[in-house]
């Protein structure tokens, strides 16, 4: 099932890229394996997937332990400072940094482990009250504050768009995030790059690609529905 789904998703990515004249290689598919058993992660790995997304620190740690070491793990969930120790040194990219406090905790853990961390700033473009992430207008200020932390490297922006039936309804959200990343990128802030735009999920990844997503986070379309609604 997983392999068949992956092939369908890849074809959908290709079509979206074709529509806007992007190369297929410019989009990184992150297979979001949260709540799913290791055997399904293995099936995706056998297919060739090397980028996996998890939203719980301990679950990522466990899968990281079991699975081959050539995987890039993406931490995409809300991160509490007391869980930072599970994620630093394991995640290739932390997508969900939305406060200086959290970035400082990541910096401290990096110093302790003598390592570095690549992060994205999570922006709540849709202004949903239930979601984490900071407001569009607050982003540059936070980027500047975090940029001085020597072991924490900002690589771009991430957003979670609302669940909508019609993906086109999220187009303006994706466009706003893209515009924001171009704007911040043009400021040439030391230790900051805006090369990554993490946006688009099962319901709207094609629209996100059309609007410039470099990383899409797809769970359901690959692994099937999850049992726990809040995940
Ligand atoms: C669960 C999750 C996804 C994947 O969602 P699907 O709709 O299953 O593709 C992507 N991003 C984040 C942050 C998630 O928590």
Would you spell out the secondary-structure blueprint of this structure?
Layout: H1 2-20, E1 28-32, H2 38-47, E2 51-54, H3 57-66, E3 72-75, H4 84-87, E4 91-97, H5 100-113, E5 117-122, H6 139-147, E6 152-158, H7 171-185, E7 192-198, H8 205-210, E8 215-218, H9 220-223
The protein binds pyridoxal-5'-phosphate (PLP).
Short description:
The chain has 231 residues and is of the alpha/beta class. It has helices at 2-20, 38-47, 57-66, 84-87, 100-113, 139-147, 171-185, 205-210, 220-223, and strands spanning 28-32, 51-54, 72-75, 91-97, 117-122, 152-158, 192-198, 215-218. 39% of the residues lie in helices and 19% in strands.
Structure explained in plain terms:
By secondary structure, the protein is an alpha/beta fold. Helices cover 39% and strands 19% of the residues. It is built from nine helices and eight strands. The protein has helices spanning 2-20, 38-47, 57-66, 84-87, 100-113, 139-147, 171-185, 205-210, 220-223; strands spanning 28-32, 51-54, 72-75, 91-97, 117-122, 152-158, 192-198, 215-218. An eight-stranded parallel β-sheet has the order 7-6-5-4-3-2-1-8. Strand 4, helix 5 (100-113) and strand 5 form a beta-alpha-beta unit. The radius of gyration is 17 Å and the shape is globular. The mean pLDDT is 96. Pyridoxal-5'-phosphate (PLP) binds at residues 32, 34, 55, 76-77, 160, 201-203, 217-220, 231. Residues 32, 34, 55, 76-77, 160, 201-203, 217-220, 231 line the site of pyridoxal-5'-phosphate (PLP).
Beta percentage is: 15-25%
Which parts are unreliable, with pLDDT below 50 for 5 consecutive residues or more? none
Rg (C-alpha, Å):
17 Å
Please state the overall shape, judged from the principal axes of the Cα atoms. globular
Q: Could you tell me how far the N terminus lies from the C terminus, measured between alpha carbons in angstroms?
A: 21 Å
DSSP helix fraction: 25-40%
User: Largest sheet, if any?
Assistant: 8 strands, parallel
Taken in chain order, the helices and strands follow as HEHEHEHEHEHEHEHEH
List each distinct ligand once. pyridoxal-5'-phosphate
Number of distinct helices:
9
- Extended strand count: 8
The side-by-side strand order for the widest beta sheet comes to 7-6-5-4-3-2-1-8
**Secondary structural class:** alpha/beta
- In round numbers, the mean pLDDT is 96
């Amino acid at each position: 099932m997983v392999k068949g789904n992956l092939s369908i998703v890849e074809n959908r990515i290709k079509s979206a890229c074709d529509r806007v004249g992007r190369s297929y290689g410019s989009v990184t598919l992150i297979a979001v394996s949260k709540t799913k058993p290791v055997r399904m992660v293995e099936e995706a790995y056998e297919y060739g997937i090397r980028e996996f997304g998890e939203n719980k620190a301990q679950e990522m740690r466990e899968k990281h332990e079991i699975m081959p070491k050539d995987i890039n793990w993406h931490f995409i969930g809300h991160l509490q400072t007391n869980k930072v120790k599970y994620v630093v040194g394991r995640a290739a990219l932390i997508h969900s940094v939305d406060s200086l406090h959290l970035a400082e905790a990541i910096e401290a853990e990096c110093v302790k482990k003598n390592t570095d961390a690549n992060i994205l700033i999570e922006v709540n473009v849709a202004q949903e009250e239930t979601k984490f992430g900071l407001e569009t207008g607050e982003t540059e200020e936070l980027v500047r504050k975090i940029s001085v932390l020597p072991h924490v490297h900002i690589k771009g922006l991430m957003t979670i768009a609302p669940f909508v039936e019609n993906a086109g309804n999220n187009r303006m959200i994706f466009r706003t995030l893209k515009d924001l990343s171009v704007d911040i990128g043009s400021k040439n802030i030391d230790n900051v790059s805006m090369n990554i735009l993490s946006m688009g999920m099962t319901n709207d990844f094609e629209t996100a690609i059309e609007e410039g997503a470099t990383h899409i986070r797809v769970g359901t379309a690959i692994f099937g529905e999850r049992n726990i609604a809040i995940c």
